[in-house]
Description:
The structure holds 2 protein chains of 2 kinds.
Chain A: E1 5-7, E2 10-13, E3 19-24, E4 31-37, E5 44-50, E6 53-56, E7 65-68, E8 75-79, E9 88-95, E10 105-106, E11 110-114
Parallel strand pairs in A: 2-11
Antiparallel strand pairs in A: 1-3, 3-8, 4-5, 4-9, 5-6, 7-8, 9-10, 9-11
Chain B: E1 3-5, E2 10-14, E3 19-21, E4 24-26, E5 32-39, E6 46-52, E7 60-61, E8 64-69, E9 74-79, E10 88-96, E11 104-105, E12 109-114
Parallel strand pairs in B: 2-12
Antiparallel strand pairs in B: 1-4, 3-9, 5-6, 5-10, 7-8, 8-9, 10-11, 10-12
Amino acid sequence: GAGVSQTPSNKVTEKGKYVELRCDPISGHTALYWYRQSLGQGPEFLIYFQGTGAADDSGLPNDRFFAVRPEGSVSTLKIQRTERGDSAVYLCASSPLGVSRDEQFFGPGTRLTVL
Amino acid sequence: AQKITQTQPGMFVQEKEAVTLDCTYDTSDQSYGLFWYKQPSSGEMIFLIYQGSYDEQNATEGRYSLNFQKARKSANLVISASQLGDSAMYFCAMRAKAAGNKLTFGGGTRVLVKP
């Protein structure tokens, strides 16, 4: 079956612009996660959805970052007034139930470059 | 807070030999899970193996095994019979029940398999 997909695969923008990154999870997965991976580092947690609601947004770095999942499937990560430090690969993952043993299935990521 | 430490930034291994990747973790939670992921140069995160904190036996998945030493808080990954396709970044991650469903990742170890 289809895995997690993310669009776009690459996004180049200018400092101060607004960007949206999209994630399509595996069909039927109730849990969805966003992570950010800076060059040479491990992924860092941003936000977790269980269904339509954000169950944990403790990883969002500041109020320029916001994510939604209005119908409990596709999610959009929104970044306002982008800064050069936002440049990273943004990874989305989904899991069937969001319980402790659940494997998280990752998408290929969106590489964001802020000039 | 949860923390994962991977002390080996990079390793060379000869094809067909075994390699051990170190991972130590820190958590005050009694219930947690440990994961290993592989990230090839293509960027996708591939799940390899899972160990629950209450699992009595060490996890194994094909050529991958996890050497879980709970008292020492270590969860080393052993890859047996290395293949050229094993060249990649490897990340250890933890999910603690008290911290919700997010994964906390280590900094990764780059493995290069030599023919």
